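User: Is it possible to get a 3D structure for a protein together with its bound compound? The compound here is zinc ion. I've pasted both below.
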Amino acid sequence: MVVVIEVDRRHVGGVVEALLVEGATKDDIERLGKYKFRRIGDFDKQNGEIQESFGGIMTECDTDSPIEHVLPREDAECCICLCAYDDGTELRELPCRHHFHCTCIDKWLYINATCPLCKFNILKNGNQSGSEEV
Ligand SMILES: [Zn+2]
Ligand SMILES: [Zn+2]
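Assistant: Yes, that's possible. Here is the predicted structure of the complex:
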């Protein structure tokens, strides 16, 4: 879906300055993998002190043979809102293998159909030409 926002059309005397923003549709977004996060904690005892390190497992939803990814602690957070994933949170993984809160990335993708981290365009995933013009 291409959203055309016209900027100050009247003021520039008939010259249309358009800002193109390419957002994804609901269908596009729902085609992406949906995962559920399960938190796992490691407790290491060192010198009598308990060191907690929380990572987790993200498990694919809506499939008979779900894929599981184990996330180290530093990876178990959403780069959009910078919050750590909570137990039971729904996540979405993009084809570039970056993952975010479902709610965060959905909002983002409606406006801009690219990965906020690596600019991978989820709409161009179908025909991989190899060259990405940005
Ligand atoms: Zn988030
Ligand atoms: Zn990415």
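Helices lie at 26-30, 102-111. The beta strands are 2-7, 17-22, 33-46, 49-60, 68-71, 90-93, 99-101.
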